[in-house]
Amino acid sequence: MTPNLYRAGIALAAAALALFASPHLAAQTPPNPYQLADGWAKLPDGRAWGNVGAVDVDRDGNVWVFDRCGANRCTDSKLDPILKFDPSGKLVRSFGAGMFVFPHGMATDKEGNLYVTDAEGATGKGHMVYKFSPEGKILLSRSEEHTSELQSH
Questions:
Q1: Which of 5, 90, 96, 153 would suit a FRET pair with 140, their CA atoms being 20 to 30 Å apart?
Q2: Which ranges of the chain does DSSP label H, i.e. alpha helix?
């Protein structure tokens, strides 16, 4: 058998298997347990969602959102990019206005502290990692320029 004929036979067998298996695999896919909760989070009047860099749920079931200030970045914005919602979607707290350029990553720890990262730099800010208390107080910060130490505030 020539190599081209062999490859054609393999391709034909793979295509037949895919056609046969597709309906059977789809039938075995479990139902999606999640439902869209459009409008769940209640933003303040006049505030719109921007691109969201990160979302995390803390130990108490609160949802933290790191929003890009109603747009795709926060460079000149006066909006708070860090938003905390209770499980019902009510805004509990927001902070961080004027601190970020491009909100990117976020995580909470077992004490409820919040770690956030700014992925870009401009106008004397950005390229930072912050640790906030659950109330929004800066506990630690680290910039790309200060790679050898964490600075306490």
A1: 90
A2: 3-28
CB contact at 8 A, 54 and 103: yes
pLDDT tens digits for 24-52? 555 678 888 888 888 888 898 888 888 89
1-to-4, 8, 9 alpha-carbon distances in Å: 8, 11, 10
Flag whether pLDDT at 70 surpasses 80.
Answer: yes
